[in-house]
């Protein structure tokens, strides 16, 4: 059985662990290990995640298969992007499903839940950054009607930036 729920501060350790695992899986094949580890240390630090839970515009959703955490999404409401005309936008900041759950349609269910929540909160659309070399993610977003609207150099560390597309879905 699959179920999705909104995360609470009690989920911070699980979010940190899953986020670290999936980020490493995605970026290690084409990014220096030191740069990826530096990003993970900062982005998934417990203090960083605690601060995010204090922000009313940040929302995490967890997806479970049976009782096992399989992935999560993180969105931030009201984050404009200079390449998009609308201003009341949701940023899909993280969207992670563990490798062992790929191909089971969990990502689609989590995605639909996340989009519905964004729409319910009067957002005009949703945008994200995606690594240009992440073909699996690009296919997923394009199948869900996202359009490439620009490019962005995503900062991994003080010395490393990775090329990303900016993708957008208007509601």
Quick summary of this structure?
The chain has 171 residues and is an alpha+beta fold.
Folded structure, characterized:
The protein is α+β, with helices and mostly antiparallel strands and 171 residues long. It has a single domain (2-170), classed as Aminopeptidase (3-Layer(aba) Sandwich), CATH 3.40.630. The chain contains 5 helices and 7 strands. It has helices at residues 12-27, 33-43, 46-53, 106-120, 135-143, and strands spanning 2-6, 58-65, 68-76, 89-97, 125-131, 147-155, 161-170. The chain has a 7-stranded mixed sheet with strand order 1-2-3-4-5-7-6, with helices on both faces. α1 packs antiparallel against α2 (33-43). The longest helix has 16 residues, at 12-27. The protein is globular, with a radius of gyration of 15 Å. It starts with a strand and ends with a strand. The mean pLDDT is 95.
**The CATH superfamily title:** Gcn5-related N-acetyltransferase (GNAT)
Instruction: Give the amount of beta strand, in percent.
Output: 25-35%
Largest sheet: 7 strands, mixed
Order of helices and strands: EHHHEEEHEHEE
Provide the CATH topology. Aminopeptidase
Computed Rg: 15 Å
List how many beta strands DSSP finds: 7
List keywords for this structure.
33% strand, single chain, globular, 5 helices, alpha+beta
Question: What is the strand and helix layout of this fold?
Answer:
Layout: E1 2-6, H1 12-27, H2 33-43, H3 46-53, E2 58-65, E3 68-76, E4 89-97, H4 106-120, E5 125-131, H5 135-143, E6 147-155, E7 161-170
Parallel strand pairs: 4-5
Antiparallel strand pairs: 1-2, 2-3, 3-4, 5-7, 6-7
Helix pairs in contact: 1-2
């Amino acid at each position: 059985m699959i179920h999705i729920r909104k995360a609470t501060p009690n989920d911070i350790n699980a979010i940190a662990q899953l986020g670290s695992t999936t980020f490493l899986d995605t970026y290690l094949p084409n990014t220096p290990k030191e740069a990826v580890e530096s990003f993970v240390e900062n982005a998934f630090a417990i203090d960083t995640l605690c601060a995010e839970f204090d922000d009313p515009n940040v929302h995490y959703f967890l997806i479970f298969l049976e009782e096992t955490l399989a992935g999560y999404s993180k969105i931030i409401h009201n984050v404009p992007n200079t390449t998009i005309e609308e201003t009341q936008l949701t940023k899909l900041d993280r969207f992670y499903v563990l490798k062992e759950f790929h191909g089971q349609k969990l990502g689609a269910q989590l995605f639909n839940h996340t989009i519905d929540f964004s729409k319910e909160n009067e957002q005009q659309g949703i945008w994200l950054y995606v690594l240009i070399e992440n073909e699996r993610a690009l296919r997923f977003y394009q199948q869900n009607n996202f359009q490439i609207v620009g490019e962005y150099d995503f900062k991994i560390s003080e010395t490393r930036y990775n090329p990303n597309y900016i993708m957008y879905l208007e509601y």
